[in-house]
Amino acid sequence: MSRIVSVGISEFKIASAPTILMTYGLGSCVGIALHDPVALTGGLAHTLLPAPVRGMDSMVKSAKFTCWAVDLMVEELIKCGCVAERLVAKLAGGATMFEPQHRTTHSGIGERNVTAAKEALERRGIPLVASDTGDDYGRSLEFNTVTGVITVRALQRPIKRM
Amino acid sequence: MKFDALTEEHLDALKEVSNIGVAHAATALSQLIGKGITLQVPKVHLMKITEVPEAFGGAERIVVGIYLQMLGDARGNILIVLPRESALKLLSRLLPREKSEGSLLTELEISALKEVGNILASAYLNALGALMRKTLIPSVPVLSFDMAGAVIDYVLIELGEVGDLALMVETEFFGEEEKIGGQFFLLPDPESLRIILDAIGVKL
């Protein structure tokens, strides 16, 4: 039996094979998975916002912000014996849950979360090997740290593996 | 005003004003469906953003979320959460024809549920506004039918920008005969919290 570890909003968790990392109900939030296929270790983050607003950037660094989540996970993964050059990334989430006419202050937050995640990965030189982002529905993720495969479940939609 | 600076007295006051607001909303709903609606005593949740999906009954619960912004003299978010079964039951009372097969909502059903949200939120904010002697108005409602976690992360965006805590005033309501029920959540902005408490005469 593999152990299951659940990741909440604005959290990230690191785990090694055969643990399964899960996160539930990603809407505009984005799920970022990093995997080292040799060390069979991975990290999964569930981020809420792309980056802190001005004046708030003195906050304690957490995976609440997409721009920090990748850095925090990489540091932790290296401590756990992973090699930065071997890491690969997968992204899911970043949906638009409510109709666009309503989006005023947080317009396009899902999309901005995805962009922030891609930028953070690029800064670290981590290749993005698969993604399932955007659209207008919520997703739950199951990340297998043995295979690196992510299973994406959504309401009324076929299960996706990537 | 920082959420963690709130005292028991503040929280009780919030429960009380919310109770009055939801009572008006329940009357409106009861008139709409022609059945009595009962309310539970409001609960105030002050919790980490990470814990919010649990308070909504679990991130994967399938719900209809109707979201409105509170605008005017105080700002915040209103979220009305109807479990799937409850939303369908409500629709069967509001719309004449039988529910079509499949569990996606039609345009007409979405529109009807948004209108319910609008009526509930307007009644709630009218009562709250009268109590505060302030003007509070709801924005145009939007709706999402999905996993609770995916529906609510949108509501947490503004709160997440300024802190890690969410303050939610929750009132559950039930139909007396029909299996209609749901949760009414008010999530005031930290700044507006001061305005609300001040307006109802609670010492800060």
From TrEMBL, chain B:
One of its GO terms (molecular function) is phosphoprotein phosphatase activity. The lineage of its organism: Bacteria, Pseudomonadati, Thermodesulfobacteriota, Desulfuromonadia, Geobacterales. It holds the Pfam family CheC. Residues 9-45, 109-144 form the CheC-like protein domain. This is Protein phosphoaspartate phosphatase CheC associated with MCPs of class 44H. InterPro entries: CheC (IPR007597), CheC-like_sf (IPR028976), CheZ_family_phosphatases (IPR050992). GO terms for biological process: chemotaxis. It comes from Geobacter sulfurreducens (strain ATCC 51573 / DSM 12127 / PCA). Keywords: Chemotaxis, Hydrolase.
